[in-house]
Amino acid sequence: MDGIVTDVAVGVKRGSDELLSGSVLNSPNSNMSSMVVTANGNDTKKFKGEDKLDGAPSRVLHIRKLPGEVTETEVIALGLPFGKVTNILMLKGKNQAFLELATEEAAVTMVNYYSAVTPHLRNQLIYIQYSNHKELKTDNTLNQRAQAVLQAVTAVQATNAPISGTTVSESAVTPAQSPVLRIIIDNMYYPVTLDVLHQIFSKFGAVLKIITFTKNNQFQALLQYGDPVNAQQAKLALDGQNIYNACCTLRIDFSKLVNLNVKYNNDKSRDYTRPDLPSGDGQPALDPAIAAAFAKETSLLAVPGALSPLAIPNAAAAAAAAAAGRVGMPGVPAGGNTVLLVSNLNEEMVTPQSLFTLFGVYGDVQRVKILYNKKDSALIQMADGNQSQLAMSHLNGQKMYGKIIRVTLSKHQTVQLPREGLDDQGLTKDFGNSPLHRFKKPGSKNFQNIFPPSATLHLSNIPPSVAEEDLRALFANTGGTVKAFKFFQDHKMALLQMSTVEEAIQALIDLHNYNLGENHHLRVSFSKSTI
What we know:
Elements: H1 4-16, E1 36-39, E2 60-64, H2 72-79, E3 85-91, E4 96-101, H3 104-116, E5 120-121, E6 124-125, E7 127-130, E8 135-138, H4 144-159, E9 180-186, H5 194-201, E10 207-215, E11 218-225, H6 228-238, E12 242-244, E13 247-254, E14 269-271, H7 288-299, H8 313-323, E15 339-343, H9 352-359, E16 365-370, E17 378-382, H10 385-395, E18 399-400, E19 403-404, E20 406-409, E21 428-430, E22 456-460, H11 468-476, E23 482-487, E24 494-498, H12 501-511, E25 523-526
Parallel strand pairs: 1-8
Antiparallel strand pairs: 2-4, 2-7, 3-4, 5-6, 9-11, 9-13, 10-11, 10-14, 12-13, 15-17, 15-20, 16-17, 16-21, 18-19, 22-24, 22-25, 23-24
GO biological process, one term: mRNA processing
InterPro entries: HnRNP-L/PTB, HNRNPL_RRM, Nucleotide-bd_a/b_plait_sf, PTBP1-like_RRM2, PTBP2_RRM1, PTBP2_RRM3, PTBP2_RRM4, RBD_domain_sf
Protein name: Polypyrimidine tract-binding protein 2
């Protein structure tokens, strides 16, 4: 997503490049007093840029080992999730910087967070510690570029503050009961992942933990801040907002819980203070470097609170396009992997075609491989990471052929086809060129009709000669009971309700693309409606 900070970097660059000549930012030789850092460009060499590692807390932080080409914006972005950044001094020749936050508390939170999640900038490890200096005094005439960036970021933050264009001050917020928020997402036409939530909610403070789950056919999450005040600010700003254009609406309440117990770091839950946790399912723990890289990416993205949708328009378009499988979403890992591992299948009944049809409701299935030595498991390759996330969140825990299936991300990057001439008993199938892909066309209306498995099915492409009785008989023949039926006005579409979700899943697998005659192939999908 094109986050605020990225936009600021672009916006400020033009107006400030000509201010750089002779600036203190290009000179490592700055004159510093013992308790107040000043930058006046004098060519004295008293400052060594070295602070004690275990210094007492200070709202001024000393950042070392910065990449040579790093910008002020990127350094400021490190501090933004934790509170207001009030000053910055870059020492480009020494690859160091000083960052001043509004409060000591914010600085302590930031140092604690980055001691758990190693900070990186541009894939380079950096070091953050308290400075010996208690405040940062810079000569603004010589430190113009840094001040310009800081002012621009502050202006953008103020513009996007949740209440009538002014920042919510801590004193103006009534104490919240809990630092934990319960989040429900309505109209989830595009995938919303744990990483997307982290990115959005980090604008209001450091997010410590997130747990996501599906309840009552709805994607929900519990999200914990370090401070109830942050939870209150996030709720004020985000409740009722759309993440993407006209969909994915946030419904936010305080949770009765005051602390979340996260056991695994994976796509469903994460404890950002403990990157060492295992991922579950026997997979290795989340690589701390990945955790740190993600912390870096999300800190670069501040999401406006007062706009609807939350993402600025081009970011919303990027998100929609990413869901449509046309582009990757910058800054948001699309679940990374396109391959799903599906286990606990009914090995007597399951076929590559049945998996293609069911998983094809949530994305364009490219390849399916039922494992030769473990026929209750299969690998399914989707067109992109967003589609695999969507299929996993909707189908994990559903019943298929009488068994509750488990869907997780596989460690494989692709599904291999069998070697030429090798008979694998039809267990592997390539669907790359299938005419039945629902999401091939960019902007297809199918993207707006993605719903969790439900007892009610939406039928379309019905020829004029087919009556209600024909369709009732056809669906009863799949082994379930048809509870209700209703034609749309034009008789080309209908809603049909089975008695259980499992029966509806079976009917969809059996009858999607069923030939009704007159060159009409029935299209079946899950509906959010009831009859």
